[in-house]
Amino acid sequence: MNQMFAMRVFRCIVEAQGFSAAAQRLDTTHSSVSRHLQHLESTLGVRLINRNTRRMSLSAAGERYYAACVDILDRVDAAAQAVTLEQERPSGLLRISVPLAIGTLELAHWLPAFQQRYPNIQVDLSCSDSFVDLVADGFDVAVRICGPLADSSLVARLLTVSPLVMVASSAYVFRHGLPRSVAELSEHRLLTFASATQWSLTDDQNESVVVTAASTFHTDTITALHACALAGGGIAAFTQATVQDDLLAGRLVRILPGYTLGARHYYALYPHARNLPAKVRAFVDFMAGHYRLKSD
Fold this sequence. Notes:
Layout: H1 3-16, H2 19-26, H3 30-44, E1 49-51, E2 56-58, H4 60-88, E3 92-98, H5 100-117, E4 121-127, H6 134-137, E5 141-146, E6 155-169, H7 170-176, E7 190-193, E8 198-203, E9 208-212, E10 215-219, H8 222-230, E11 236-239, H9 240-249, E12 252-255, E13 259-260, E14 263-270, H10 278-295
Parallel strand pairs: 3-4, 3-5, 7-10
Antiparallel strand pairs: 1-2, 5-14, 6-11, 6-12, 6-14, 8-9, 8-13
Helix pairs in contact: 1-2, 1-3, 1-4, 2-3
C-alpha cells in the first residue's frame, strides 16, 4: 500500500472521529479505511488507535504519530500548491540562450515587453552563436537562427522564416552608387560573415546565381558586421527580421530587392514538451507572437 495515502487515511480517521465518517470523506469503504490503518500499524509495529465496538481513542504512539502526519502532509500539500501556482503564474529563473543578432540587435524590441508581462520571471540571458547543449549547460530554452533544423532530441517550435537580404547604408550608396544588377556587385565593397566566400542569390522566379564575394571586410560576429554596414563600409547580408527597423528608419537600404540569399529559420528549442514549465511556455508563446507581428 501507499504509505503516504495510509497516513492521510489515518489523519482522516482521527479528524472525522470514526471509520465510517472517514470513509465517506475519502469516498471509499469502511473496510478499505480499516485495511489502510492495519497496514500502517503493521509497518510501524505499534497500535495507533484503540478501538472497540462503541468508541475509539488514540494511543500515546498514535497521538505522536498524528502530530507528525499533520506536519508532513501539510508540508507536502503546501509544496504541491506552490508548484501548481508556479505553473499557473509563470515565475522563477529562466535561462535563455540566443544568438548575438537577437541578443544585441533585436533584444530591445522584445525583452522589455516580456518582462512587463511576466514580472515574476527573472531572465538570465546568454548570447552566443554556438549551439549550446541545453541540458548539460542548464538552459531552459534557446532561440536559434539557422537553416531547416535537423532531427534532434529537442523540441523545436518554428517562430518565423526570414529572408536573407542585402543591405547598405545610405551614405555608402551615395558614395558608390546603387548596384542595378548582380554583375555589378563585383564593383562594390562586400562585407562577409563567418566562412561565407560565395553568395547564392535567388530571384523572384526562384532562379539562382552564385556570386564570389570579393570581401573587403570579414568578421565572425553579426554585431561587428552590422556596425560596419551602418558605418558605410559596404554591402552586407542579414535576415530581414534583424534589419527591419534599420530599413524602416532609412539607416539601411535594400540592395537588389528582387534577390535574397535564401532564408533563415528562427526556432525556439527546449528539452521536453510534457509538463513544460510555465515560464518556458510563456517565453516561447511570447516570442512566437513577437515574430508573427514582425512578419505581418
